[in-house]
Amino acid sequence: AYNFNAGPAALPLDVLQQAQAEFVDYRGIGMSIMEISHRSKEYEQVNDEAQSLMKELLGVPNGYEVLFLQGGASTQFAMIPMNYLQQGQAAGYVLTGSWADKALKEAKGIGETYVAGTGEASGFRRIPAPNEIEVRPNAAYIHITSNETIAGSQYAEYPDIGSVPLIADLSSDILCRPVDVSKFDFLYAGAQKNLGPSGVTVVIAKEGMLKDSPKGLPTMLRYDTHAKSKSLYNTPPVYSVYIVSLVLKWIKGLGGLEAMERLNHDKTKLIYDAIDGSGGFFEGLVDPGSRSLMNITFALGSDELEKKFIQEAEAAGFVGLKGHRDVGHMRASTYNAVPYESCKALAEFMQEFQRRNG
Ligand code: PLP
Predict the structure, then answer these.
(1) Domains of the chain: which residue ranges?
(2) Coil vs helix vs strand at 341
(3) Is 211 noted as a catalytic residue in this protein?
(4) What is the pLDDT of residue 287?
(5) Where along the chain is L-glutamate bound (predicted)?
(6) Into which CATH architecture does domain 255-357 fall?
(7) Is the ipTM of this complex over 0.90?
(8) Could you give the 3-state DSSP secondary structure of residue 190?
(9) What residues does 93 pair with on adjacent strands?
(10) Which atom belonging to ligand 1 lies closest to the Cα atom of 77?
(11) Whether residue 169 lies in the annotated active site
(12) Which tens digits make up the pLDDT trace of 71-105?
């Protein structure tokens, strides 16, 4: 299949094959990795390796920690304000689409919030520029969504906001390109797009953000609990973290994040060129300066034509091209594991479809 699913999404074939080879007998121990203690030396090695590879690939500076948590990025939407939003403060959220909105809604139930910037006037076709973000004197933090999975937009440049903590949701674009982690105080990402299977959420944060969570918070919802125990406070999602460790090795083997970014640019260029070169037959749903390297959204002139496109694409082996139910139209998710060949095949299919229907 040409897998363009938005998430859970494609995994590298090499990773799936290695996981298959190790599934029943993990590296000669006579059992699966899922059947042994998370306190065993074998799992500790997986956990340590995944943390250190994440730091290596992203160039995480000293003074930051990597955590593996559960509950998806959606749980982070609540844990962030629970841990960092105090009385008398307001948390600023930059609205770029559905996921930023969900994060904001969750924080509203916990404390005072404000909209620090918004792309709403453009119908979320563009990400607010760094100088359009308002940092209030009592801001607890500013939250941004690096890549809007549903709208198909992505920050080309992250804002500098001074001494107020910058927190970012990288669920759908982590490791798609190099990132200057030192710009951020706290990053998080659900695994099921670029990192591995669902079930694990990565947090990368300054050590100071992971200490002294407010009194009264439940144990599992405190960052200090997980930081103190190296993400082994309770039983972790062992298999998901194991696959994440294989995916990280796969990225390292390809040449790291510079190589990943080049590949992602080459892949998405094929599809954006098919849109831009179509003379309006295909319409991109995001302004060029805010386009995503991971989720390409586009429309056709009518509902009938879009239905026909999806049907014929499915028959030709393309999976997951239907847009999210909130926005409709089409979306091709071109995460790290989607091969160049799949993007080339899709671009050719689009051109061929236009020849027959344009
Ligand atoms: N944030 C973004 C940008 C997402 O794309 C998603 C899921 O698609 C989420 C958050 C929610 O993630 P989860 O399902 O892990 O809670």
Answers:
(1) 13-254, 255-357
(2) helix
(3) no
(4) 98
(5) 39
(6) Alpha-Beta Complex (3.90)
(7) yes
(8) strand
(9) 115, 143
(10) 10
(11) yes
(12) 999 999 999 999 999 999 999 999 999 999 999 99
Q: Cα(351)–Cα(342) distance, rounded to whole angstroms?
A: 14
Would residue 99 show up in a list of annotated catalytic residues for this protein? yes
Task: Give nearest CA residue, ligand 1 atom 6.
Answer: 171
CA of 155 to the centre of ligand 1 (A): 17
Q: Is residue 165 reached through a cis peptide bond, with omega within 30 degrees of 0 on the bond before it?
A: no
pLDDT by residue (tens digit) across 29-74? 999 999 999 999 999 999 999 999 999 999 999 999 999 999 999 9
Q: Using a 6 Å CB cutoff, which residues line ligand 1?
A: 7, 72-74, 99, 145, 149, 169, 171-172, 190
Binding-site residues from annotation for pyridoxal 5'-phosphate = 73-74, 99, 149, 169, 192, 234-235
Residue to probe by mutation, ligand 1, list 146, 155, 172, most atoms within 8 Å of CB: 172
The residues, ordered by sequence, that sit 6+ positions from 181 with a Cβ below 8 Å of its Cβ are 58, 59, 60, 61, 64, 187, 204
Does this model's pTM top 0.95? yes
Ligand 1 center–CA 170 separation, angstroms: 9
CATH class of 13-254: alpha beta
For the CA of 192, the nearest atom of ligand 1:
15
Query: Considering only CA atoms, which of 9, 1, 2 is closest in space to residue 294?
Result: 9
